[in-house]
Amino acid sequence: MVATTKTVSNLAVGARYLSKRLLASYILDWVLILGTAAVGGAFSKIDGARHDFSLQDPSISFPDHGDTVSVGVLIVVSVVAPGVITALISLLFVPGPTIPHSTPKALIWRRKIWEWNTAWMGLGLALAAAFLITEGLKDLSGKPRPHMLAVCNPDTSPASIRQHQVGGLGTSIDSAVPIVVDWHICRNTDVSQMRDAFASWPSGHASFSWAGMLYLSLFICAKFAVQIPFLPPTPASQDSRRYISTFDEENDIPHEEDHSSKNLRSDTSLSSPRHTHPPRNEAAAPPIYLLIIAFVPIGVAFFISVSRWFDYRHHGFDIISGSLIGIFTAWFGFRWYHLPIRGGSGWAWGARSRGRAFWLGIGRANYVGDEGWETAGRNAQKRSDLEAGRRDVTGAGLPDRGDATETAVTNPAQS
Predict the structure, then answer these.
(1) What is the pTM of this model?
(2) Domain housing 60
(3) Phi, psi torsion values for 254, nearest 5 degrees
């Protein structure tokens, strides 16, 4: 109980010293992500274009069967489930087994909270972008769904056809010659149903499910190192030593040396190890159960996407297009906030520096500088503490780059 109280107290102290400028920049990021989703929601309510269609078109003559995966279920699966799972992983498994036992609890919780925040920001960016792009394209294209004629209930009387015909050479519904009409021929007056009937391309279920589910898969792969084994690059001078033999055990492979090199052994002992790992022992395949866990969300995305085909809600091209949108936004949202899966050790990128929170300017390479994340006054105080021989372990809500403990937490070499 005392340790918990101390940890909470240290977090509160650190939050007080966190740069307000930096905090405001990330609040703005959240506002823009939510604003992007809000614009997508507004697009979904717009009465967009309604493409002309042929009354004899078999591709839009399927029955109206309803949805296997409703919008409510889609939101739970693509938004709520990834949000809960990524939060639990960030809180339960971060920072991992590589940190020293002496690491302060406050520092550990700072890392947990930061990883949680970036997990949700990446997910929010992926979903909001997919939603905005999909709904905007729906409004622009106005493509009829496969069951559009069932919803439209067109008036096929000769007078109505003559009034609403905009193309084609046909004059009667009984003729094989196409009759192209506009949507005003429909007798259905329900605004919502008619708007939805002309929203086939691209598939929103496909884009939204792939955005949420693929992001979750990438997140799981990153946190638990679910990746194809690979050989890290080595200098050309070491290639001959690396490939001595793939059948010998790693402790039984001495470096080749001639008599002239024996006199130099003491000089090269620090730069050249006594034994070399064979390539087969430099990496290994992760357990299959982790691979299954990581690919379950992808299977869910496939099912949701395909359900739009057998529900007669979308054409094949609509589903493929929506899936590609979701795949791209999921990858982009993940990489915007997280290191690459291969070599990233499961970490998210750190925060921007205080002086570069809103703007970088020409001549600077990235948004990380030497000023850190805390206020200028706090940095000055910490420098004074270091000069006086004191060590601060509370810090701000985000770790300081000069903290040796933080280096131990984030060093990829130890991960």
Answers:
(1) 0.81
(2) 21-153+188-227+288-414
(3) -80, 155
